[in-house]
Amino acid sequence: MATSHDVAKFILEECGEMTAMKLQKLVYYCQAWSLVWDDEPLFNEPIQAWANGPVVPALYERHRGKYKITHWDGNIKALTKNQKDTIKHVLRFYHDKASYWLSELTHREAPWADARYGLAPGERGDQEITHAAMAEYYSSLS
Fold first, then answer.
1. For 55, phi and psi rounded to 5 degrees?
2. How far apart are the first and last CA of the chain?
3. Tens digit of pLDDT for each residue in 44-90?
4. Does an H or E element contain 54, and which?
């Protein structure tokens, strides 16, 4: 199975340099829509509901302290043609949006908001956003 690193590398190769926050949000939306359209996750690493939106801790460990990301170590060959097509569809809709806009969007959506239940705005949290929560919410939008 592909990893979040493989997805991040593919996104950067498709779109070029972007902020770390935007990369995180795009990886999140790729995972969410893969669960809806393909009935399976793109990767198994958890996504957590951090104060600034969904974060894949495995990605964060690599980009911590960086604002802009230009390349990523990953294996694009681990992604199937169908997975690449899913990512490309997600990028067509979300890529031109600003980092802050994407973050604000995730804050208005149930998977992140529900995982943050009981936490004050800005408070640290590491609650996982489950595949079930993402699939249920985003399938209701399609």
1. -140, 135
2. 25
3. 999 999 999 999 999 999 999 999 999 999 999 999 999 999 999 99
4. strand 53-55
CA distances from 87 to 33, 80, 103 (A): 9, 11, 18
In the numeric block, which tokens belong to residue 60? Answer: 């964060």
Vertex 116 angle, CA 114 and 118, to 5°: 100
Q: Are 59 and 7 in contact (CB under 8 A)?
A: no
CB 4, CB 58: distance < 8 Å: yes
Rg value, the chain, Cα: 14
Please choose, from the candidates 116, 114, 109, 117, the residue with its C-alpha nearest in 3D space to the C-alpha of residue 138: 109
54 bridge partner residues: 49
Side-chain-side CA neighbours of 96 within 13 Å: the count stands at 3
